[in-house]
Amino acid sequence: DKEIRAVFLRLFAQLLQGYRCCLHIIRIHPEPVIRFHKAAFLGQRGLTEDDFLTKVLEGMAFAGFVTERGAPYRSIDLFDELVAYEVKRMRAEEGNKQKILRHIKELAEKLYKNENPYPAVTMHKVQKPTEGCHLRLHQKPFPRLDEGTVQWIIDQATAKLQTAPPAVKAEKKCMVPSGPPIGTCVRW
Questions:
Q1: 62 pLDDT exceeds 80?
Q2: What phi and psi values does residue 171 have, to the nearest 5 degrees?
């Protein structure tokens, strides 16, 4: 699952390299509007006749992408890093399947770590008891609980929670890097 997502992440990072250079913020309205200059993007990449990329840029999904990710000041994620900093690496890996696969595995690992920041905290499924299991003769009665032991367990869990890192990472907002000039991007 993560490797398939990493393949698509890498594909769209290559397709959209340099897109930030073609974003324009219009501040006439009370709320700023972000527009994408499609002709400049396609022209500078030499892809004016590319039907696929033209249709991608005209789609509603891309309009949502520009609205969501076009702001110059927000938290940076893996896609932003790929578009801004990995251009040379992806160009160097062209034609070398082993390097591409290694990069995809690295991206998949980063995606996994992003979704599972604390791997020690796992939830175990408890199976539902079968019907009539309480009627079995070999089943031992549930032992009496000692109040002192129960309180000790609760105190241990409370101490662990107090020293545990926060469950949600605080978003660190900064200027989104625009990456290399659009003319240096990979041509398809």
A1: yes
A2: -75, 130
Q: What is the 3-state secondary structure (H, E, C) of the chain?
A: CHHHHHHHHHHHHHHCCCHHHHEEEECCCCCCEEEECHHHHHHHCCCCCCHHHHHHHHCHHHHHHHHHHCCCEEECCHHHHHHHHCHHHHHHHCCCHHHHHHHHHHHHHHHHHHHCCCCCCCCCCCCCCCCCHHHCCCCCCCCCCCHHHHHHHHHHHHHHHHHCCCCCCCCCEEECCCCCCHHHCCCC
What CA–CA distance (Å, rounded) separates 123 from 132? 27
**pLDDT value of residue 81:** 86
42 and 10 Cβ atoms separated by less than 8 Å: no
The mean per-residue pLDDT over the stretch 14-42 comes to 85
Please report the sign of the dihedral spanned by the C-alpha atoms of residue 56, residue 74, residue 79, residue 5.
negative
Average per-residue pLDDT for the chain: 82
Per-residue model confidence (pLDDT) at position 188: 45
Higher-confidence position of 104 and 188 = 104
In the prediction, which pLDDT does 123 show? 63
Which position has the token pair 């110059």? 72
